[in-house]
Amino acid sequence: MDTWTLNPCYLYRTSPVGCPHTFGEHVKSPDVTLTDVVFYFSVFADNCNAPLVSSLPHSSFQSSSQSSVGYAAHNAKLNRRDGAGGWSPMVTDQEPWLQVDLREQMEVTAVSTQGRYDSWDWVSGFLLLYSDSGRAWKQYRQEDGRIVGNVNSEAVVQNKLSHPVRTRFLRFVPLDWNPSGWMGLRVEVYGCSYKSYVADFDGRSSLLYRFNQKSMSTVKDVISLRFKSHQMEGVLLHGEGQRGDYITLELHRGRLDLYLNLGEALWRRNISVIELSVHLLDDQHWHSVHMERFNRQVNLTVDAQTSSFQTRGDGHSLDVDYELSFGGIPLPGKPGTFLRRNFHGCMENLYYNGINVVDLAKRRKPQIHSVGNVTFSCSQPQLVSCTFLSSSSSFLSLPPPRPPASGGFSARFQLRTWNPDGLLLSLQLHPGPQTLELQVSGGRLLLGLHGSGRHRSEAPTGESEREQPIRAERITCRAADHLYSSGSPIPSFQGCMQLIFINGQPMNLSLVQQGLLGNYNELQLDTCSIKDRCLPNLCEHSARCSQTWTSFSCDCSGTGYSGATCHNSIYESSCEAYKLSGSSSGFYFIDPDGSGPLGPTQVYCNMTEKKVWTVLSHNSSAPVTVQSSSLQKPHVMRLNYSASAEQLRAIVSGSEQCQQEVVYSCRKSRLFNTRDGSPLSWWLDRDGERRSYWGGFLPGVQQCSCSLEENCVDMNYFCNCDADTDAWANDTGVLSYKDHLPVSQVVVGDTNRTGSMAVYSVGPLRCYGDKSIWNAASFYQESSYLYFPTLQAELASDISFYFKTSAPSGVFLENQGLKDFIRVELSSPSAVTFSFDVGNGPAVLAVKSHLPLNDRQWHYVRAERNVKEASLQVDQLPLRFLQAPADGHLRLRLSSQLFVGTASQQRGFLGCIRSLTVNGVAFDLEERARMTPGVSSGCPGYCSGSSSLCHNRGRCLEKSNGYVCDCSQSAYGGTTCNQEVSVSFDRESSVTYTFQEPFSVMQNRSSQASSVSTDSRAREDVAFSFVTSQRPAMLLTVSTFSQQYIAVILARNGMNLTQYPFTHRSAMLQSGFLVTALLFDLSPLDQIDQDVHRKYTLSSDAELILIRSLTLGKVTSKCSGIKNGKRFIGCLSSIQFNHVAPLKAALTNRGSSLITIRGPLVQSNCGALAESTLSKTVWNVAEINRNFSKITPNLHKVTQKLPKFMEIVQKNIKNAHDVFKNCLKLQNFVQNCLEHGRN
């Protein structure tokens, strides 16, 4: 093993920000190995749990108050019965706390609490604060909020800290206590001593570490330190070289940035920049930094949050000349400097590649040069912060000191908040009723004088996106006189303040706390309790996190995901799923692992055959000609697909079958050496392994397809090309062994002889089938279940499946932990329940149906839980939401296996479950069912197969001797829901469908939910066909209860989406009048997307809340912006609005109170006639140009009889308006054409 000659602390595998006293005594040898040090530290870490409080003197204990002498703070030692047996505050103490001084800085790893001896007094929940000075406090934050205390007075509850804290002072702040008694507390703290090497920089000083040689070149660097800063800007480290290398680590707006350049020219584009989303680093508390670089790979960790990146360019070493500077850059004008302000604060245990820089400086070693005043003890600024906790009731009222001789009033303070709005200062002026108010409005300071009509804006303070906290280093306002307070109809300020000066005199907040100065409410003194709720970022899939004081929200735009935390994919998982939803062939984005990490990719879905094919192309679709290649210098072609390797693997593994065609045309170019059979050309599979078979699904056979089919030109060879003739030959094969697909590389090595040549091509990867959709299991016994690994659902999880049953109740699945659990069940014949507990108590979501769910028909269930909310969806019923409690427990901790069915005392499930997907991973129920008693693979019944028996959203219903199609949710009719429903409209015709109850696009989402979070039902799907000869024409209007309107209008220049009172968007319809499918999406998009099938996404910046009605044809409501002149004359057919078919409902339920019909409304076959004539292919221009003979026979016969008509269509197929000059003549024209065709 290599011997490390570095400082042993440097070898600590976590951030080496400190070493114990005993380390230097026991490990001083320069020949310490890595194993020795790691072993030592593992033993040391296990032993850092010594009691630290039991031996402390009485003077180390303080409290906010005490009930009497016997309840004093020094009686609060664990298991002691001194005095009254513990500490208890006065009953009137509104902000009680118990404080312990450990006498020196220690590393604290755990705390224990106990109630007051032999009493009804104990604390059941508390906050833990820590401080170096006893003045500025910081809250120890556990991810799940407050720390759990006691349930009686005698039992000891120990809480191990998830990350140790290094501190001298600890403060216990009770939050909850025994409601039948009072607060009582005894405590113990566990940890060990902590060695600290500290340097204090005053903002004008720095330390220079000078190298022994002129330049230092390193391929590996490790830098670690702890710091606490008094300012939000400052350089921590800087080094540079003459050839342009440099490294800079600096604070910028309280965030740490790393700039690194390795061996590149001094151009900014070559700079590698890493900006950690760790804010609030200028809070005057300690923060740890650990940077590791090996060649171009860099890891930067700040307070346990790690970010990794690779440097730009080709350089691998960092060349630094002469010196490294810490704390600032002593000489101005050095290149690579982006912030020249020196660091003001303290650094501790600063190590550069194992060298203790502070220790060398303290011992005045010649390698270290001090610039300015660097001291070796950390000064403690006497700053006292206060936190305004409530946005409605927090205030601090202070009487102003004597005004200055010049008169007037002045106030100065520093603030910090996440909220964009809040009242900072309110001052009643005399004489007169005028009020001076200073507020934060939209992230900017605004100073207003009310009662005078004057209002003016002051300085900007921060970014409006609230990615960073709003800060102000100094705010000064001057006015007349009287007092300073907070309280107004404007929301109160919620955040932190410090350094409050009134009339030039500092305000002593300690006197405020003691009740000797002013008055306050909902105020926390001695600490700034601002919390970065975006650290860690709980928004998924790289979504952007923003926050206020009390919550965070996720911006899902551009991610391909939706929901409160951007967990749900907005795309289907396969082409098969798109077909089942009623889609036709075209390019689609699919997300093969749903809510998993892979992300969406674009594929072509070919649905023209019985099988649905998923097609993924690559960068070399054209034939490739190869000459002059040999085994020594082969031709190599790498294939890059439209999806990543991980996405390809997921698509292939989730498909029933995949294949890829390889065509190899040759002239004197062999695939195999005829003497020894070794391959002369080959291809690489998805894992980079060499493969030399050229067809079929038998990877062990080195043959071509002609050999497998026994039709080679020369049967003495296994491939046609191996005959090695001067004539062209061909070996074409279809590769179908899934585990090897797709082809990643082709290598050709036998075209270097005279007359030798090869031409090859590799087709796209083609897969069909979705193994998960019809993967099913049948449960015949209530006690039977299938088990799978523990659900990985700590922060977010989604579960979806289909079920059918005749049983009145039963548990679909459950997973349990010590206390936490998650369960989805059929709780009654008409209700599905989703329940869970993450430590905040059981939460229950239920969806009730007006029809029974145990009807032996398939029903869809999707349950999701994340840190912000839980949701439950059943079929097309309204989605139910449950908001997570603020500052509650976040992590769902499960330990048992995941049971499909139940292994507990709950009632088991009887029936079928299929397509079970958890967090984007499909569970193989059939495989597990084959080995489980009481469960069988598959599910019997006509409607259980993968073939779609009912079309266009029709629902297959099982019968004893067959099946029927329920077309109630479809816009189509007929026995299999494939007959269009069409109606002819005249100038006065209209149909209005009124929803039974307010239909919210946001699906009952709580008003507290993020406005930027895209919900899974923010997309509204509308599909319809129409034939008309009039422009402009009103096709469809949607209105809401809040007087919002959206109208789809056929304008003179295309299709328009008009919103009132919002915006106007257009989609150009190049092909004229007939629209076979129109989709519009109300989620925010930047442009209108079109594909070859004329599907449109019309965007809206507005959110439709509480949809009231949908109108077809003439608009009768009197609303501004919707003109009655744009009336529709023509044919409307098969209109679908989500799960509602308003046109069909108007024909079948004319007496319904939900349907309002005005004017003549005649059922017609105009939609079917137009479709049979044009066969929906007039819109697929590309497909017609490629193969016009594929157009349906009726149209083909028409074109044969009418060559002039055919010529018009071919010349101007993109503009159907020129072909069909008016739609009323179109019907008669087509009927005559069809009659000629039949003749």
Automatic annotation (TrEMBL):
<feature type="domain" description="Laminin G">
    <location>
        <begin position="198"/>
        <end position="378"/>
    </location>
</feature>
<dbReference type="InterPro" id="IPR036056">
    <property type="entry name" value="Fibrinogen-like_C"/>
</dbReference>
<dbReference type="InterPro" id="IPR002181">
    <property type="entry name" value="Fibrinogen_a/b/g_C_dom"/>
</dbReference>
<feature type="disulfide bond">
    <location>
        <begin position="912"/>
        <end position="939"/>
    </location>
</feature>
<keyword id="KW-1015">Disulfide bond</keyword>
<keyword id="KW-1133">Transmembrane helix</keyword>
<keyword id="KW-0245">EGF-like domain</keyword>
<keyword id="KW-0472">Membrane</keyword>
<feature type="domain" description="Fibrinogen C-terminal">
    <location>
        <begin position="566"/>
        <end position="618"/>
    </location>
</feature>
<feature type="domain" description="Laminin G">
    <location>
        <begin position="775"/>
        <end position="939"/>
    </location>
</feature>
<dbReference type="Pfam" id="PF00754">
    <property type="entry name" value="F5_F8_type_C"/>
</dbReference>
<dbReference type="InterPro" id="IPR000742">
    <property type="entry name" value="EGF"/>
</dbReference>
<dbReference type="InterPro" id="IPR013320">
    <property type="entry name" value="ConA-like_dom_sf"/>
</dbReference>
<dbReference type="InterPro" id="IPR000421">
    <property type="entry name" value="FA58C"/>
</dbReference>
<dbReference type="Pfam" id="PF02210">
    <property type="entry name" value="Laminin_G_2"/>
</dbReference>
<dbReference type="InterPro" id="IPR008979">
    <property type="entry name" value="Galactose-bd-like_sf"/>
</dbReference>
<feature type="domain" description="EGF-like">
    <location>
        <begin position="530"/>
        <end position="567"/>
    </location>
</feature>
<keyword id="KW-0677">Repeat</keyword>
<feature type="domain" description="F5/8 type C">
    <location>
        <begin position="48"/>
        <end position="192"/>
    </location>
</feature>
<comment type="similarity">
    <text>Belongs to the neurexin family.</text>
</comment>
<keyword id="KW-0812">Transmembrane</keyword>
<keyword id="KW-0732">Signal</keyword>
<dbReference type="InterPro" id="IPR050372">
    <property type="entry name" value="Neurexin-related_CASP"/>
</dbReference>
<dbReference type="GO" id="GO:0016020">
    <property type="term" value="C:membrane"/>
</dbReference>
<feature type="domain" description="EGF-like">
    <location>
        <begin position="940"/>
        <end position="978"/>
    </location>
</feature>
<feature type="region of interest" description="Disordered">
    <location>
        <begin position="451"/>
        <end position="470"/>
    </location>
</feature>
<feature type="compositionally biased region" description="Basic and acidic residues">
    <location>
        <begin position="455"/>
        <end position="470"/>
    </location>
</feature>
<dbReference type="InterPro" id="IPR001791">
    <property type="entry name" value="Laminin_G"/>
</dbReference>
<protein>
    <submittedName>
        <fullName>Contactin associated protein-like 5a</fullName>
    </submittedName>
</protein>
